[in-house]
Design a protein that fits this description.
Blueprint (H helix, E strand, L loop, with lengths): L1 H20 L17 H16 L27 H11 L15 E4 L10 H8 L6 E4 L17 E3 L6 H5 L2 H8 L10 E5 L6 H6 L8 E4 L2 E5 L7 E5 L2 E5 L5 E4 L2 E4 L3 H16 L10 E3 L2 H29 L5 H7 L1 H19 L7 H11 L14 H4 L2 H19 L8 H9 L13 H6 L8
Parallel strand pairs: 1-2, 1-3, 3-4, 4-5, 10-11
Antiparallel strand pairs: 5-10, 6-7, 8-9
Helix pairs in contact: 1-2, 9-10, 9-11, 9-12, 10-12
């Protein structure tokens, strides 16, 4: 007889539980006393408690299930750069970039005070003909930027000097004043850096707060040679070569000039206009000598060309010392192919592990083809550069990779191998001071005896 009474009471009890479960989360049953739980986990617990209450049988005294005793899981926001995704989509659609390319306009040109390290090089000849009558020209010692040029408040600033001279400009008093002002001068974003000769100045650019993905960066692979006779004043010289045909039947080209960044469109228009006026070329319908690209592609190519220059210089210096003959890039690429490929792979592997920069497939063939037959590469003397040239080629690898690894070994007091054993051995053979980092298996002893002649 107690069954009907108990069944009716059970129904009332179930209705009460359902009404409690339908309350908003801000009530006492919202598990607000568990701040360490994530939002999704708290909702799951409330939902599980409501379902348990609705399934309560006769005689069951369970109200809400207790929180799980397993460790809680914290959910954090993950940063994602949507610009990289958009760039990749544009790449699939054969669009160079999402940037609104600006056409050529009146600009500013900065030239060094003294003679360029390569006064007769094709690159310097090209820089001389870039300025026009509407442009503003200044020098390192008298660095000044007008508020506007021909009505343009914003304009590109071409740094027309050898890459080895760029650090001197950035460390000058005028540039440091622009960098340290608050807010920093917007003119720094308008600098256009021209990279060539396999020099790597990324460390100097980053040190002075320039050289990011929005900075205009041009990998220059063409120049002009003066012609005393003929209809035109100059002749175009380019490193562009064809290395075969790809799977789509298109020619595979190496050594193209490529530019990226804020003023990429302006640089492309200015360079192609100068080449047309001085050489008379460009009569074709689709004639182009400058490509528009992504920052990541341009940066990867700059590293690739630095690997090429560092390899040919070092291997050529070693064999020039033994054979007593001066070698060129073409001699090294054709005569010592195995050594060059081994060093190229060593440098690229260290780059992938150190800066997370990976070369594109077939970079070994591209580098060897540059040294063998590229007009602006094959005739270069294969010798380790001195002073600033060494710091921006082989010296960069020794300082940023080998010495950095040794410093980590001393700090952690653990043995670390040399990431560039072949490169370090060859540097020691040509007379560079690398004896201090020869033994990586005894970091404590090396730390105790410091050689003052080593820069780091």
């Amino acid at each position: 007889k107690a069954a009907p009474y108990g069944g009716k009471m059970q129904q009332i009890f179930n209705l009460a539980l359902l009404s409690l479960a339908s309350l908003p989360i801000s009530t006492s049953f919202s598990l607000s006393h568990l701040p360490s739980l994530s939002t999704s986990l708290r909702k799951n617990l409330c939902r599980r408690g409501a379902s348990t209450a609705s399934r309560t049988r006769s005689g069951c005294r369970t109200f809400l299930c207790r929180p799980s005793l397993r460790p809680t899981t914290q959910l954090y926001n993950v940063w994602s750069n949507e610009q990289a995704v958009q760039d990749y989509r544009d790449f699939l659609d054969n669009k160079p970039s999402t940037t609104d390319w600006k056409p050529d306009q009146p600009s500013c040109f900065v030239f060094p005070d003294d003679v360029s390290p390569s006064p007769s090089s094709p690159y310097s000849e090209l820089m001389k003909v870039l300025p026009g009558s509407d442009d503003h020209t200044t020098t390192f010692s008298d660095l000044n930027f007008p508020d506007s040029i021909s009505g343009h408040d914003s304009y590109p600033i071409y740094i027309c000097c050898h890459p080895d001279s760029v650090p001197f400009l950035l460390e000058s008093e005028a540039c440091q004043k622009m960098r340290k002002s608050y807010p920093p001068s917007p003119r720094l974003e308008d600098f256009v850096f021209l990279h060539y000769d396999g020099r790597l100045i990324e460390s100097s650019l980053r040190k002075n707060n320039v050289g990011g993905s929005d900075q205009t960066t041009c990998l220059l692979n063409l120049g002009l040679d003066p012609t005393p006779r003929g209809l035109h004043s100059h002749k175009l010289v380019s490193s562009e070569i064809t290395t075969g045909v790809d799977s789509y039947g298109l020619k595979k080209k190496v050594g193209r000039t490529i530019v990226c960044g804020k003023w990429a469109g302006s640089v492309k228009g200015r360079v192609e206009k100068a080449v047309k006026e001085c050489t008379g070329e460009g009569e074709g319908e689709n004639w182009e000598v400058v490509d528009l690209g992504f920052y990541r592609d341009v940066r990867r190519l700059i590293f690739e060309y630095c690997i090429a220059a560092s390899t040919f210089n070092l291997v050529g210096s070693v064999h020039s010392k033994t054979s007593k003959e001066a070698l060129e890039y073409s001699d090294v690429a054709l005569g010592y192919t195995d050594e060059c490929v081994e060093m190229v792979q060593e440098l690229s592997s260290c780059l992938r592990g150190g800066l997370a920069v990976t070369m594109m497939f077939g970079f070994e063939d591209r580098i060897m083809n540059l040294g063998e037959s590229a007009p602006l590469w094959k005739s270069r003397p294969a010798a380790v550069a001195e002073a600033e040239g060494f710091d921006n080629t082989n010296g960069w690898w020794f300082t940023e990779m080998t010495c950095a690894t040794f410093e980590k070994a001393k700090a952690a007091n653990v043995p670390l191998p040399d990431p560039l054993p072949m490169h370090t051995e060859y540097l020691g053979f040509v007379g560079k001071n690398v004896e201090v980092v020869a033994d990586f298996q005894k970091p404590v002893e090396n730390a105790a005896v410091k050689d003052p002649s080593v820069p780091w």
